Amino acid sequence: MARNSGLLLLAAVLMGGTPAPPPPADLLRDAMNAPERISYVGEVQVLRIGAERSDATIYRIEHRAPDRTRRWYVAPQDLYGDSVITRGSTTYSIDVKRERLVISQDEDADEQIAARSNFGILMANYNAVYAPDETVSGRAVYVVLLNNKYTGQTTMRVHIDAQTHLVLERQQYGSNGSLIAQTRMEQIRYTNAIPTAVFELPAGLNRVNGAARGQESTDIAHVISSAGFTAQVPKYLPEGFSPIAGDVVSIQDVPTLHLIYSDGIRTVSLFQNEKNAAADLSHYHAIATTVAEHPARYVEEGPTTLVAWSDGNRHFALVGDLSLTELEKIGASVLP
Amino acid sequence: MKSHPSQEQLIDYLHGELAPGEDAAFLLHLEGCDDCRGRYEDEAHLTESLRSFARSTERELPAGVRAVIWSAVESSHRELGWAQRLAAWLRPAVAIPVAATLVVAAFVGYDSVAHRSGAPTIDAAYYLDDHAALTSAVPFNEGNTVPAALFTTESADGAQ
Predict the structure, then answer these.
(1) pLDDT digits (tens, 9 = 90+) for A272-328
(2) Cis peptide before A66 (omega within 30 of 0)
(3) Are residues A267 and B123, on separate chains, in Cβ contact within 8 Å?
(4) pLDDT at A45
(5) Is residue B55 very low, low, confident or very high in pLDDT (cuts 50, 70, 90)?
């Protein structure tokens, strides 16, 4: 009898059927943690679409659960041959052209706690509903739509492997409904036979320390008080947004406060300093605008927009995947 | 127009140079006077013949003559006094675009001035990178697809 049931299940899978899906929120939570228990290799295609410019990145990925990952960049051409190895909280960027190994340490021990907390914010602001099942890279997937509770718009579409619950594809949409980002896994193969050598560091490269980052904290009040100056915060945020983290970092001896706000999918960062250190936009195509009648400039990197301005005492930069109008509105509300 | 028009009036009519009242009176006269209409047609035919001849014999000025003329024009520009040149620059058609350009240049050049004055600046790449790094804790957000350390420019390193 048990043998017959197994054959029936096998037949259902072979005929393209998928197991009955769990509640979408449970599936999303499980999908978030899937890389901790699933090992795989594949190719990831990342597309970030902006109004002026779009970027595509393709890399081979080898992931051994729970926390070892190597990404080999195939495109764009500038990155071809480079790779990134992540071992726990340490990231090694292998820069072949400059023959160096850049080591970055993620000091944030609370990332799992933060992720769980942010999942709560996500579920508070979005309705998760199923769309018809599809296939990605030959795998049957559940498709979950995350619809914003305030606008009703679908902000993200997540394709989750029906068997392993690994996210194989996701699309993010802007406020006008246009696609702004897509990540898709191709040629996925689940395997536990990934040699340790894949995650070993190459010899003969100059080892340098990566960019210093502040200790990220979810205690926003503590972060603001440690800035060393009277911080300003936005009085307006889009519906559902709340502060989720922050840090204070010294950039060229300039203490800079970074506060990050999110609704669980979309994020906005506010940077500020009072050392008259303006944002250097000389590497970008900057366009003039205004924030609360202050002259400002903005740049677009794919779907991400950065707006920089000064109120005469402090320099601010606002970064996020929101529209320029929305960012200017947030910026105008940044007051003592 | 009771009397017949003179030859001068006829030529002026042909070239549209009569006053409106005179022109209307001439036309009225032509419609009722076969002699004057004949004179008019002869004159018109002669005029058209002369124009055709002029067009058929039209020639480009020799290159040497044109060069001399342009040289004279340019030297007359160079000989303008400073007051005349200033007056020429202050014409609205020139002054307004120049003023607009200066305003834009002053605005766009803010960073350059800040650099020269020794004020610190923070590379925007750092902001973009730090934003991406700290969003990695947001569910289904990949964070940095490409670490700043692999950028081919030195911009991201410059923020350290």
Answers:
(1) 998 778 899 988 889 999 998 899 999 998 889 999 999 888 999 999 999 999 999
(2) yes
(3) no
(4) 96
(5) low
- Contact assignment for A253 to B120 by CB distance below 8 Å: yes
CA atoms within 13 A on the CB side of A150: 9
Token digits of residue B4 = 């017949």
Q: How far is B89 from chain A (nearest CA, A)?
A: 28
Residue with tokens 């058609």: B93
Q: For residue A309, what are its two tokens?
A: 């301005």
- The model's pLDDT over B103-124, given as tens digits with 9 standing for 90+, comes to 454 444 444 444 445 677 888 8
Cβ A301–B128 below 8 Å, yes or no? yes
CA B134 from centroid of its chain's CA atoms: 52
Reported ipTM: 0.83
Token output for B145: 């697809």
Phi-psi category of A93—alpha, beta or left, where left has phi over 0 and alpha has psi -120 to 50? beta
Identify the residue whose tokens are 């729970």.
Answer: A66
* DSSP, res B65: H
Where would I find the H helices in B80-137?
82-89, 92-108, 110-116, 124-134
Strand partners, B6: none
Query: Which residue ranges make up each domain of chain B?
Result: 7-56, 124-158
Mean pLDDT of B80-98: 57
In 3D space, the residue among A243, A247, A249 whose CA is nearest the CA of residue A223 turns out to be A247
Could you give all domains of chain A from N- to C-terminal order, each with its CATH number? 17-209 (2.50.20.10), 220-335 (3.30.200.100)
Nearest CA in chain A to B112: A282
Distances (CA, A) of A46 to A160, A190, B129, B151: 17, 20, 16, 17
CA B73 to chain centroid, in Å, comes to 20
**A chain contacts of residue B152, beta-carbon cutoff 8 Å:** 78, 97
Q: Which residue has the higher pLDDT, B65 or A282?
A: A282
In terms of C-beta density within 10 A (0-12 exposed, 13-18 middle, 19 or more buried), how is residue A229 classed? middle
How large is the greatest C-alpha to C-alpha distance in chain A, in angstroms? 79
Place of tokens 């040149």: B85
